[in-house]
Sequence to fold (306 residues):
Amino acid sequence: METVTALIKEKALELGFDDCRVASTILEGDEGFDCWLEHGFHADMDWMARTRDLRQHVQLKVPGARSVIVLAKTYYRPDTRPMPENAKIARYARQRDYHRALIKPLKGLADYVRDCMPGTIGYASVDSGPVRERAWAARAGMGWIGRNGLVIHPRFGSWFFLATIITDANLVPDDLLPERCGTCTACVGACPTGAIVGDREVDARRCIAYHTIENRQEIPETVAANLCGWVFGCDICQEVCPWNRRQVLETAAPDGKSETFPLLDAEALASISEDAFRRLFEGTPIMRAGYGGITRNARLNGGYRE
Ligand code: B12
Fold:
């Protein structure tokens, strides 16, 4: 199995992933996830609670699952144009939708696993599947769960996407990495809405990313007054992280497909027509917030100056 595991990792890099590691499914579920749901930290994301069992028990998704292949794809690129201070877009969303960009190499890797081990079954997903990607990444030693809840990779910081393949193949698991946040609480202190509430726990009800991307209702006053210019997502807890600020941070290779849309300020976004919105943002993660969400967020940020 050692040879097959090594071949799969090699193939993952060949397909364009930046790292590939393996977790064993022996350790299943963790209390942190249930606790998060019980506290209501998922806000209106009822789909998280509905799929609780599937997320906690991978065998329900892939009967006989023995391994989870965890993949990382970095998205950090040095800024080449100024972001309007009252209409900031999270770094991951400044380019083509990653679900679409990663699905082809991911399926390619899943096919390769089946070619190596005929008869095995698997489930491949990026973000939207009922898979607890961060927990698996931590177990595969891809990085450690940072105080901001994100997985921090020793070379890429937290600027990377995760994808997984759950398989019934018995691959060789990697070792865990030790937690390396130490006593640093930069992310906790920097969050303007106090969303990082417990040890590695984020309360979505207070998270700017949740409200600007997922919330379809009115944004509560306590958050609305502190959006700090974010119209889609938020990177504050990542920007202040020392692991994301180092000179040696490895950057993603430019693929020529980044920077797919002009960066408009809040005034322009607040008054954009629905047609123009679609023309500009089709095929990017921004569509997740929808026309109503983005124009609402832009209106709330209209008067913001740093
Ligand atoms: C729902 C969701 C959100 C929600 C809720 C966020 C949250 N903290 O859970 C909202 C909309 C707010 C959100 C925001 C963002 N998200 Co999001 N989100 C997800 C999604 C779909 C599910 C996450 C989930 O299950 N949450 C519930 C928590 C409690 O469970 P968990 O993830 O299994 O992990 C916890 C426990 O397992 C526990 N745990 C596990 N092992 C261990 C070990 C120890 C020792 C301890 C103490 C704890 C512990 O700690 C973990 C963290 O709390 C995942 C994709 C996926 N399918 O997993 C992406 C994902 C987590 N998001 C991602 C990103 C990039 C973001 C944003 C940075 C986007 C942005 N710039 O705006 C922000 C960051 C906000 C933040 N600091 O968390 C990436 C993270 C990549 C990475 N490097 O970690 C993911 C993995 C998507 C992807 N495929 O790349 N997100």
Notes: The radius of gyration is 20 Å. The chain has a mean pLDDT of 93. The first strand starts at residue 19 and ends at 24.
